[in-house]
Design goal:
Layout lengths: L1 H43 L2 H8 L3 H8 L2 H8 L17 H15 L1 H10 L3 H20 L8 H21 L3 H5 L2 H17 L6
Length: 203
Amino acid sequence: MNGSDSSTTDSASGTGGSRRRSEATRDAILTAARERFASDGYERATIRAVAKDAGIDPSMVMRYYGNKEGLFAAAVTVDLKLPDLTTLPHEELGRALVTHFLDMWEENEVLTALLRVGVTNDAGAERMQAIFRAQLLPTAHAVCPDPEQVPTRAALCATQLLGLALTRYVLRLPPAVTLPREEAVAWLAPTIQRYLTAPHPGI
């Protein structure tokens, strides 16, 4: 009986040790990936370089994250630093949000890379969805007139903001790229304003 208990304990201990080693390996990979993506950018960073920095074989990175896109999506944390819309004049909400997102896209290559990954990779899409839920939803909730409509209104805002980013910074469609910044704001701001604050269309 005692032998059986000892075997069970040893087995459980082995499982726990394996889990801890796995978590430590994941942590090492993600730490190395964040530093490598920050220093080299998305395009130049490689699985091999991340593995070398983490002190492991590249196959381990592939085992946990599949490919560079999956690794990037798991490693990158993006703070959109959204403005507090409740402190702004009501009629300026759309302009403020569009201007802020243009600043973010133009100054943060990690955000553009995450968008690029998000449209081609499930892990990237999940990360974009998580950012949407955690950051854009509360911002919309603060100013939307109907709390039940917050998810829909925030999603509609995302269609415009992410659509602009996709065409301007990822696909680089010439008319979107050459569109002057102020003109882009002028076109999008009224639409974002309507999505955030207009009464429900009541269809």
